[in-house]
Amino acid sequence: MRTTKLLAVALLATTACNSTNADTALDPAEEMGVVVPDGKEDNFLSANAQEYVVEGVTTVTIESELAGAPEEEKLARVQKLIPLKQIAVGWFLNQYLGDKHGDANAEYGGFSSLTKNGSYEQLNITAIDETSYQFTFRQEVGGKLDLLESLPTSMGEDGRRHFDLTIGKINNADMERLETNNEWYRTAPWDEFDPSTVDASRLDTLSLTIWPEPRSVDAWFDYDKLFADGKVTVGVHFGWDYLKSYHLVHSRSIYNWLVDSEHFTSPVAVYEDYNRNSGPLTKVIHANDKDVTVEVSLYWGKVGTEEDPDTDAGGKVLEQDLRNSLATREVIMFFGHAGPFYGFTMSNWRKTNEGDLDDAEIPFIDMPADTYQIVFAEGCDSYGIGGAFALNPNKPHLENLDLTTLTSFGTASTPLSVMDSLRAVFASDARDQHTPVTFMTWIQSMEDNTYWLNSMYGVHGVDDNPHSHPYASDKLCQPCEEDSDCGGVGNKCTRLNAAEVYCTYFCTADDGCPEGYECREVSVGGMMSSKRCAPKSLTCNMDPGEAVEPTVILNELYVEPFEDANGDGHTDESEDEFVELVNASEHEVDLTGWYLADSSLTRHFFEPGTRVAPGKAIVLFGGGDLASFGSLGDSQVQIASNQLGLSNEGDRLTLIDVRDHVVDEVDFGLEAAWGASFVRDVDGDPNAGWELRATPSAGYRSDGSTF
User: Fold this and answer.
1) Which of 75, 231, 286, 697 is 20 to 30 A from 593, comparing alpha carbons?
2) What domain range includes position 507?
3) Same domain assignment for residues 240 and 380
4) DSSP 3-state of 40
5) Alpha carbons 327 and 331: distance in angstroms, whole number
6) Residue 494 parent element (H or E)
7) Do the domain assignments include residue 661?
């Protein structure tokens, strides 16, 4: 199974420019926010993009001289060819789904969607004959919310959408031709692929299935990590522009804006004197009573200098500057031209092949493992690089990295996107206090700048970001009359009910609130304005209570089957994988609308009407025929919606309820592989730890008794 963390895209449609979580003191004329009781929410935000999973079956063919080789040797070659075939499928999928204004194949497909390079998964490798093997593949796609309506599909008996994709027949030697700037897909007829212009003998058709993934929850940039040492370093890189030399126009605009409007101190007197060796522009901001120095360094190509974008030497300098920023700075911003499989372009590609940082190179670049970084990839169709960054060994699963990208076209004509991204780092309010922003707030500002293009911005790696305001105080449930009674930025005086006014703070999800509290919608003037932590009881006149134990818990995982766990008479590495859940509460639980996800995909949606009695278990298997399964005690059994595909290298498995609240989750590592069962040391106990056992016990307690 793939071990990269896939993009979590959560996009907000263009609305007003004001933040819905405005961090300002309560004005006497402002109506106080009121916590909204259950069932009274009114969703006034709309997302315009999300992720989808595409699945299909394809083949690879090993060389004829291997026909008589041992099966082990054949499979070794197959395993080398599969990733290459995944790249090929991804390329042709991009050619079909992506918009291509002005390209020779502009009329082919075009659904404002892109695949994520590196977001590949393969399952069920099966021999067809002596040299051909088929496998099931999955890739992740970012696209419009209504993609399934605009994409020509048919509804299958499985309740999912299906469509056909035309791909080129690429031989093994060509698939292996992936030298940077000389990849097979950069040559005709594949570079601007249109099947109507290619001989039918060179084409093949894949039948694909597509379904949507749940979108991630909004969160804040991790300012605690970003400002931890009292300094944040920013590298802003302007890629060469062929339209109106916007790399020169915008670098000048941003320099002057930083100095004149944002009051940064420059190491030189004027823009004309600034170069890559000048050093950063600096400013001190006040972040929750802490002084933080912001250092912004600017880079762009200038003809006739060592960073001349028209020359090989200059292109190498520009690329190395970008690499240096990725290796040493906390915030890296790229504004220029990009595209699927092309990464970042710093130089004039019409005159030099140097000066670009391709997707294929990103997994191998130097990045700090222990430093939180934000990468703003402002370039057309930059979504695809999400998977590439996730493959970097220093940023596994996008750990310590937030990456912002575009799933469509951006605009090179305005520097506003650069300004808004910089504001996300250091913006302050009228009281000169730093104002943290959520990803949604940043996305809204970016989309306001490009409303005529319907740009689709997204953020990768958000699931581990803070869901409570970075400057939340410890004054929850203290009485208040105004916001200043509750602390600084991010803390609000809020009406809980007709008689109670107490302190709250901004949040985006329940896990951003302490025990006994939850993240609730707040109405101002009858409109949903934000979410704030409030007591679950909606009163501060009683103890919020002890932590509520999860009603249903993850109890046992079987990650890499060595045994016939489902009892159907044979061992299968996919079908015998299982996850066992136990109802640890004292009442029946309805799992309708709940789902199980790992860091890659949603693995199972619970069937409508799924109910688990107190103390009973339900077991999810990766596949197989339920009718052929052996005895599993009194436990319910279901087949996972999307196969389980549990990672042998370790992962996080999360159980999420119908309200998108995390009910239970577990992290497991390599130790859970190699045929071991990963199980709670006391079955059905939410407080129990986890241990390894030699034998799986699907549907039964570890001692062999029934639930």
Assistant:
1) 697
2) 16-46+467-548
3) yes
4) coil
5) 10
6) strand 491-495
7) yes
